[in-house]
Design a protein that fits this description.
454 residues; mainly alpha; repeat
Length: 454
Amino acid sequence: MMLSLNQMGGIGSGQLSFSMALPWNPLRPLPPLTSSIQCAVTKQGQRFLTKLAANARDAKVTNKLIAKFLTSSTKSIALNTLSYLLSPDTTLPHLSSLALPFYSKITEASWFEWNPKLVAALVALLDKQGQHNEAEALISETISKLGSRERELALFHCQLVESHSKLSSKHGFDSSYSYLYQLLHNSSSVYVKNRAFESTVSGLCEMDRPSEADNLIEEMRVKGLKPSVFEFRSVVYGYGRLGLFEDMLKVVEQMENQGIAIDTICSNMVLSSYGAHSELAAMVVWLRKMKSLSLPFSIRTYNSVLNSSPTIMSMLQEPKDVPCSIEELNGVLNGDEALLVKELVESTVLDEVMVWEPLEAKLDLHGMHLGSAYLILLEWFDAMRCRFNSGKDVMPAEVVIICGSGKHSSVRGESPVKGLVKQMMLRMESPMRIDRKNVGCFVAKGRAVKDWLC
C-alpha cells in the first residue's frame, strides 16, 4: 500500500503523514529473527532494533515501538539510528523498509530540523526499494521548500547523486545526474558549477562508470571548467577499483602534466586499487615511487598495503600464533609481501603515532586496521627497546597503548585491535594490562616495561 505524503508549511515544519505504517510486503520472507544486530549504533539503538527485528511481522507493535523509542531518545540517538537504517552497510536490510515511517515520526519531534541531506538519503533508499512515488513526493516537497534558491537546490541534487551512487541505484542516479548536468551547462554561478562538477564526476566513478567521468572532465575542460585534484582522484580510484590500471595511470600522468602534484591521498587510492586485485608487485613499485617523490606514508598507506597481504591477514585470524617480532615476521614472509613490509617499516609513520615524554610514553593505534596495528606494534617493541637501551632519554613513568574500546567497530564494544593487543601481551608475558579507568588502553609502569623488553 502506498504512503501519502503531505507538505506542511515552510522549512523546519515539514510533516509527513502515512496511511500505512509499514511499507514492506508481508508475504516477503524475512531473515531469521534470532540473528544478532551488529552495528555501530548506541546501545539504546541496538536494543530498539533488536525489538523491531523480533516484531517485524506485527505492524501495530512496530508502530508502538517506534513511538516509544522516539519519546525516550535524545535527538542524537534518534538520528543515529535513522542513519543506520538508511546506511548501505546496514546488517538488517529488511528493517530499512521502516525508514520512511520512522522518519515521519521524527518530523513530529519538537527538536526536528528539516535536513535536505537526510531527505536525500531517504529518497535514495526508497528509490532502491522501488518506492518511486514516495521518493518523488519527498523530492517535490524539498524543491517546494527550497523555491528558487539555486545553490541549495544544486546542493540537494548533489546529495541525491551521492546517496544514489552509494546504493548503486541507477534509476535514481540517472535522474539526479541529468539535473546536475544541465546546471553544468546553464548555470551562471561558478560555485554551483564547481559543486555539480565534483558530484557528477564522483558519482559516475562510484557507479563504476569512470570512462564517462573521464569524458565529462574533457568536455568541461573545453568549456573552460578546469578539473581540480578532487575530480582527478575520483577518476583514478574509479578506474583502479575496476582493475583498469592502464587507464588509471594515464589519469595520474595527466595530473602530473597539468602541474597537479601526486599526493599521499592519491597514492593511497592507487595502492588500494592494486591491493584489491592482489597486484603486490605493483604496490612495491608504487611505494618506492612515493619515496622517490618524498611523499610521506600515512596510516591509510599501511591499511591499504597490509589489508592486501594474504599471509599477514591469514595469521591474524588466529592472533594467538602470530610472530611477535619483525625478525620472526620476516621469517614467514616471502617475495613481494616481504618487500612491502620492508618498505613500510622504513617509513616515519611510527614516529607520528608514538610519544615519549617523562610522564608517559604512548602508542596510539586509532585509525589502524588490524594488519596495520600489528606491524606498528612490532615496530614499537623495537623502538622502545632501543630507547631504553640508549640511556639518552628519561624513563617515562608510565607506558600506554591506546587501541580503543570498539566504538567504531562493526560490532560495537568489540575492538579487533584491542583483542590482538591483549593476545600478544599475554603471549609475550607483558606487564601491560587493561587500564581500569579506560578499557580502551593498556598500561604499565615504565620500569616494568623496560625490564620486560630489555
